[in-house]
Amino acid sequence: VQLVESGGGVVQPGRSLRLSCAASGFTFSIYGMHWVRQAPGKGLEWVAVMGYDGNNEKYADSVKGRFTISRDSSKNTVYLQMNYLRAGDTAVYYCAREDYYDRSGYNLIDYWGQGALVTVSS
Amino acid sequence: SSELTQDPGVSVALGQTVRITCQGDSLRTYYASWYQQKPGQAPVFVMYGKNNRPSGIPDRFSGSSSGNTASLTITGTQAEDEADYYCSSRDNSGNYVFGSGTKVTVL
């Protein structure tokens, strides 16, 4: 399993940025995908999830209405469109795969990419 | 939204046992999963369910769960176990939540 994020960088407050995550080593079309972020020196914060079929799209309250997750199974890629960016969105953004673990009873995040740094600053 | 509470940090002597706890209402419904993160690296999935290790995770890692509390225990702690540990679960709205993280320092 390999997940490679791209598209990070420095962006001004109020502007937009799109992250991409290229997946390989597994059958992308049958797995849900997440974005999780980590502000500098802080803990992990779940951001969004999209089901394997493009349904079951959910967002953290902190990004709802500003961020959009999407996927293109023909390209084995998941995206995070980030609009109206704020300084508080500055973080490393991780793409992660989920899988169903029956001894847990629900889908869990099991593999993570190395992350892409997004810095929101004027 | 749900919250998961973890102690900020714990110290353990090399070779000894350390337990990391995670508390939250969502844990009454959903088992926790656990992730290890070393500085500058992505998190690694180390525990799920009541006490289940993903492939490749050493058996010195174990888990337990009761009521609103989940625990991750490292028995015979090694120097390479020094890291931040995060619990996670789902909440009743279908969202996911992470704990605040526990820094394990190996003395």
Produce a short descriptive summary:
Chain A is mainly β and 122 residues long.
Can you walk me through this structure?
- The complex is a heterodimer of chains A (122) and B (107).
- In chain A, 0% of the residues lie in helices and 54% in strands.
- Chain A contains no helices and eleven strands.
- Chain B is 0% helix and 46% strand.
- In chain B, the strands form two sheets. In chain B, strands 2, 4, 5, 8, 9 and 10 form a six-stranded mixed beta sheet that branches.
- Chain A binds chain B through residues 34, 36, 43-46, 49, 56, 58-61, 94, 101, 103-106, 108-115, and chain B through 1, 30-31, 33, 35, 37, 41-45, 48-50, 52, 54, 84, 86, 88, 90, 93-101.
SSE arrangement:
The complex is a heterodimer of chains A (about 120) and B (about 110).
Chain A: E1 2-6, E2 9-11, E3 17-24, E4 33-38, E5 44-50, E6 58-59, E7 67-72, E8 77-82, E9 91-101, E10 106-112, E11 116-120
Chain B: E1 5-6, E2 9-12, E3 18-23, E4 33-37, E5 44-47, E6 61-66, E7 69-74, E8 83-90, E9 96-98, E10 102-106
Parallel strand pairs in B: 2-10
Antiparallel strand pairs in B: 1-3, 3-7, 4-5, 4-8, 6-7, 8-9, 8-10
Radius of gyration of chain B: 13 Å
What's the end-to-end separation of chain A, in Å?
A: 37 Å
Oligomer: heterodimer
Q: From N to C, what is the helix and strand string of chain B?
A: EEEEEEEEEE
Q: Estimate what percentage of residues of chain B fall within beta strands.
A: over 45%
- Look at the structure and give the mean pLDDT of chain A: 96
Mean pLDDT of chain B: 95
Total number of helices of chain B: 0
Provide the descriptors you would attach to this structure in a database record.
heterodimer, A: 122 residues, mainly beta, seven-stranded mixed β-sheet, four-stranded antiparallel β-sheet, B: 107 residues, six-stranded mixed β-sheet, globular
